[in-house]
Each structure stands twice: as structure tokens, then as C-alpha cells.
Amino acid sequence: MKSKDRTTRFKGFDKWIQFQVVRIVYFSFQILPLKLVFSIGGLLGGIAFHCFKNRRLQVYENIQHLKIWAQEKGIQNPILAEDTQVLTKTLFVRNMANFLSSICLLNKGKKQLNNAIEIENLELFEKTYAENKGVIVLFPHMGPWELITQFPNIFSSIIEPGQMGSLYRPLNNYYTNRWYLRQRQRNGMKLYSRDDGFLSMIRFLKKQSVLFVPFDQRLREGVAVPLFGKPAQTPNLSTLFYRKTQAPVLSFSIIQCGHAQWKMKFFQLPISDMNVEDGSLFLERSNELLEQIILESPCDYFFFQNRYK
Length: 309
Known about the structure:
Blueprint (H helix, E strand, L loop, with lengths): L12 H19 L2 H18 L1 H21 L10 H22 L4 H7 E3 L2 H9 L4 E5 L11 H4 L9 E4 L6 H12 L4 E3 L5 H8 L4 E5 L8 E5 L2 E5 L2 H9 L3 E10 L2 E8 L10 H18 L13
Parallel strand pairs: 1-9, 2-5, 2-8, 3-4, 3-5
Antiparallel strand pairs: 6-7, 8-9
Helix pairs in contact: 1-4, 2-4, 3-4
């Protein structure tokens, strides 16, 4: 029988060496104090800004497009009043600090997590989960988003271990993917890739569970849906989950609010007036919600990809 693990083709000595380097870096950042890791991340982000020209240009273009869109819409955002080059560098610095901090926090307990992350409107998540058999949460690549695998700890007072799951994209390294998958799941988060099958995710969602679905990845295949005024390739898997379960849909932002401090805020997707079969409207409203979330703190968003190809 053919294995479902597509990463088996990414084997070899060079891949094994890459895996060992990743492990060393990973554990190094986990044993350091969070505030030091945050500072190192900011420093490395500043260096990356000067070293990676193509990425720098992509971020610059995305921010410039966001500023033009906001101006056309009459949206007043003091952050966007800053020079685009300054915002581009700030985004590099913040994203690297966020990413390395999320690695540092992956092995921390609930007390340390609560000290680092403030949740602004937890009652929205709590109420939505209590009133329904399952909840779909659209998650953006924003802030320390790798921390999603720590959510079973963060929300342990609301939801039982094993009742949270998330979609993920396998890494192009068999050894790293197998190892990192175990690291991500050890706190109780169930992880699904497309190889696990759509039906297994639907069954999980219907068992009074919460399923986190990325809704801002750049895909080779997707649906062209407006984002900041331009058609963007948008994953449509979330529409299938909604159509099959009619579960309520939430999202959230995570933004820096201090040195090694973040604030998390929940949002609800308006779907009460929506025909369950209207996938186009669902995706339009999802991208409108993503716009709102990004405007909370554009420099905490992962603006390194081109969604408009």
C-alpha cells in the first residue's frame, strides 16, 4: 500500500544535515529567556531586511498597495502614515521576533504563556464554543502564529485536550517534518494535512471540536477573491467545512503590544444572513475580515508572499 506521507520523497543525507541544524537552532532558542530571544529575533530581522532584496521588494510592494487601498477607501490608520521603507524594515524586525519567540514559547507552561499573551475578548470564543457542536477558526499568519499549537494550554479552561485541531502544510524535509510534527502535537493539538483526507477533518469538527484553518496562504490553485482591492488567490477549504457543518466561524489577530508581549483579539465572521451554499460570498467576507485584522497591525502580518499572481 502506498504511503500517504508525501514527505518521504524529501530524504537524503543533505536533508538529514538540514534537520540536525534545525534541531540545534530550535532547542537553542527554547532554553534561552523569552525576552532575549525576542531581542535576537529583532536583530536578525534587521539584518534580513538588508540581505534579502527580493523579499524586501515584495514586502515594500504589499505595504505600498495597502496604503493606496486605504487612501482610496478613506481609511485613517496612523501606522500607514509612516514611510513605506520604514514600515518594510519594521515588518522584517517584528516578524522575525514573533517567529523566534513562538519557538521559545512552544515548551512553556500556561503561566508563562498567560504572562506573554493578553486575550482581549475571550468571552466571544468561550460563548461561541459553548453554544455549538464545533467551531471553525480562520487563522492568519500574523504575530507568533506558530503558537497555535499551544492553544490547548492557553484555552484549557474552556476546551478539553484533544478537542482542538489545525490544518498544516508538511515541510519539504522528511526528517524535519516527522520530528516537528511530534513537537507541535505534544500539547494536544491534532494536526491535519490534505493527505489525511477531508472527511477525517469533518468528523473531527462535528465532535464538539475547534478546527483552525489558514485562510491567507498563497496557493498554486485557489479562488480569485478581492483582497485590498485586487483579486488574490484564496484557499477555499474553509467554505467546504462551513458547507458540511454550518459551524460558526471566528478569526483572531495577534499583535505586539510591548517587549515580548502580545495581545490576541477574536473576531466573528458574519454568516447569519448567508446561504450555506454561497461559497463566493463566504470567501469575500473572509477576505474582508482578513483586511480588518491586518489593519490592526500591518507590521505584525506575514507580508512576504505575493497573493496576486
